[in-house]
What we know:
By secondary structure, this protein is an alpha/beta fold. Helix content is 40%, strand content 17%. A 7-stranded parallel β-sheet has the order 3-2-1-4-5-6-11, sandwiched between helices. β5, α6 (151-170) and β6 form a beta-alpha-beta unit. The model has no long low-confidence stretch (mean pLDDT 96).
Amino acid sequence: MRVLITGSAGxxxxxxxxxxxxxxxxxxxxDCLDPYYDVTLKExxxxxxxxxxxxxxxxxxxEDRQAMQExxxxxxxxxxxxxxxxxxxxxxxxxxxxxxxxxxxxFGNILEGCRHNDVEHLVYASSSSVYGxxxxxxxxxxxxxDHPVSLYAASKKANELMAHTYSHLYQIPTTGLRxxxxxxxxxxPDMALFLFTKKILAGESIPVFNxxxxxxxxxxxxxxxxxxIRVLDKPAQPNPDWDSGNPDTATSKAPYRLYNxxxxxxxxxxxxxxxxxxCLGIEAKxxxxxxxxxxxxxxxxxxxxxxxxxxxxxxxxxxxxVANFVAWYRDYYKV
Length: 335
């Protein structure tokens, strides 16, 4: 297949590109190397793929309509994975315009590219943050998610609605994936594991929000990518049993699907930190703080639909995943 991946210099995008290249697919990678975090890390991720003969590097922003039109028209991808987005819950409070530009305008350009170029399947990143104020655990894709608590979450919910519209109007198979706290080698520097590791090794105190009591369904990068590939290979189909009188939010009469990809095993933040301390061989200095605005106390993924439809369930333990991250971090930063 010829697969267009947006966010190809990102944490998930670069790892996905490697996997697809390894199995013989052609990859068109789109990224703008946004300076939201360390660009040299993005360049290092890209260096793993750019030398491959089946990889094409496109430097563009997805909110650039003309650039996206030209990219789709030139390369005619069979399938698309949209991972480009302005990430981060807290940054959306400081800089909302970045989320409107990338996550809404940019996603609209991707949908238009799929519409006008006969794309067989669009897979796109949603987020566990869409569950917002929900307290019914585990979070199910069949639950109502109309109460986001950050603009980032609202933009991801909007993506799901926009995708459904295109599936309904133009019969484009679309699948949204709600990722749950992705971590692992080559991860994002603004995420907790990266920040904690850097500060602990520097002898600095780490901020522990919600006094370490909140729980996250930490999901290892390789498990996320395996889930993305399985979904990519199985274009969304209409649900013939969909009932407008009792509408299911995760399916439709259109070729539209939503899935959670999470470890289905929430871990308390303090245990996550203790695991990191063991891997580093250093006890962290902790600054205990209240929950941050826009954050949620707990996340917990119901992955029954992923198991039923794709025959797959993430399974990497936090102990193994954190150990792999620490080994990568020490090697990459020579510490």
